[in-house]
Amino acid sequence: MESTLRIMSRLFNYNAKQFLEHKKDLYTVFQKGLEHEDANINAAAIDTFTSWISHTPSREAKMYQDLIPAITTAVIKILAVDEYQVILPLSPSDLTLNIREPIRWVT
Amino acid sequence: MIDLVEQEPRFFKKYFSHLFQAMQKICGVKNIEDEGLKQMAIQVICCFAEREPKVFEDDTKLLRDYLEMILAYMIEICETPDEDWEVPEEGKRWRYLVFTNCVLSSQDIWKFSLKRQTILVSSTAAVSSIDSQAALANKSC
Description:
Chain A is mainly alpha-helical and 107 residues long. Chain A has 5 helices and no strands. The longest helix of chain B is centred in the last third of the chain and has 25 residues.
């Protein structure tokens, strides 16, 4: 799933318009990616999401606003487990972390 | 994230409180290995504030929290304000970017939409809050 998201993120640079027909499916893909237990997939989902929003007309992007809370939660989760080893004061209700390896950042 | 906030600030308007709280959480972490991370968190809010100043005008608590975040970060970088704050040494410039970028440029932009009085009151409140937190920390030591 991570690789698919990364590839999709690059594809938006070339022809995002073609994906507009599938905007509802994309919403589900982003949502699943952001809520996934693997932080690498969360990072890929954020990458793809930001790429999509930057290539989408504002009118169309509006429906994705609901995903912002999921994004901020994912950002905090990634920072808590990534190579920076940021120890954030996560409340028990925040997240359950089950990370086996550090995040692989794509530059 | 910074690029997206810069490009599409309106997109974040509805759920800005979530974004703000997340960045506030990052800035509030004591032992952080990558100092640039906090700067990036502040830049996210700074980018938004420059493009949507009305959000801060309508919510003075938000403005106070934002200023508090910036001031706390500045103190964390250098506890004693000296000439370096205005004219940083060569190679240390990045440390002061937060001050020049977030405080000076923001106020420059805000003065057209936000009353100076509002900024002054919020800045004073932010300073008092930081001061009382420091006093509390000293007491516990």
